[in-house]
Amino acid sequence: MNYKNGKDVLPPSLLKELQHYIQGELVYIPKQTEQRAAWGEKSGSRQQLTLRNQEIYSCFIGGTTMTELERKFHLSGESIRKIIVKMRRTSIHQASAHGAYS
């Protein structure tokens, strides 16, 4: 995040209006919604977690126990359960969208 002086970037009328509300303090102005990247999109974290969660679900479907999953992925049992429930819902939703449950 870059710091910019309002008098250098804002029209004088807008600067004067803002000074009615705040003076001499920092104000964060967020990007417009359509310009914001979702969490983890730029760093690739979102994709890495998706792949990890798919692997967890595949292992579970393949018979790996919860304890083994906890050890392998260094996650709590509750976290593993949440991932499995979410992945199960996603796979059921995708299957029904493709006509597998029609």
TrEMBL record:
Residues 13-95 form the Mor transcription activator domain. It holds the Pfam family Mor. This is CD3324 family protein. It comes from Paenibacillus xanthanilyticus.
